């Protein structure tokens, strides 16, 4: 069986327009907020009020922009935020986005399995 490896742009290949475009959707901002804790998450742990295929699309947009790194282990996929690479390429941008998202409650409807649901 051949497993297709996900490609990830190097920090030098990341562009501001692509990163900002990826952050233009509340679901994707919510995913970034979840991943900002530095933990790698299994795709199955992520909860959003959308179809699994749509969640997969959003995760691919984040990966293609360079915001996340995806790793496959057997049949499971894991995702983590590329905080260090983003800060090296765009210093302060991620922290500013996360603070604004928290202040405006953007993406709060995206959760992790087992966490209490937002009210």
In short, what is this structure?
Helix content is 42%, strand content 15%. The protein is of the alpha+beta class. The chain has one domain: Orthogonal Bundle (Arc Repressor Mutant, subunit A).
Would you give an account of this structure?
There is one protein chain. By secondary structure, this protein is an alpha+beta fold. The protein has five helices and five strands. The chain has a three-stranded antiparallel β-sheet, covered by helices on one side. A hairpin with a 2-residue loop joins strand 3 and strand 4. The longest helix is centred in the middle third of the chain and has 14 residues. It is globular, with a radius of gyration of 14 Å.
User: Runs with pLDDT <50, length 5+?
Assistant: none
**CATH homologous superfamily grouping:** Winged helix-like DNA-binding domain superfamily/Winged helix DNA-binding domain
The secondary structure category is: alpha+beta
| Helix-strand sequence | HHEEHEEHHE
GO molecular function: DNA binding; DNA-binding transcription factor activity
Pfam families: HTH_20
Protein name: DNA-binding transcriptional regulator, ArsR family
InterPro entries: ArsR-like_HTH (IPR011991), HTH_ArsR_DNA-bd_dom (IPR001845), HTH_MetalResp_TranReg (IPR051081), WH-like_DNA-bd_sf (IPR036388), WH_DNA-bd_sf (IPR036390)
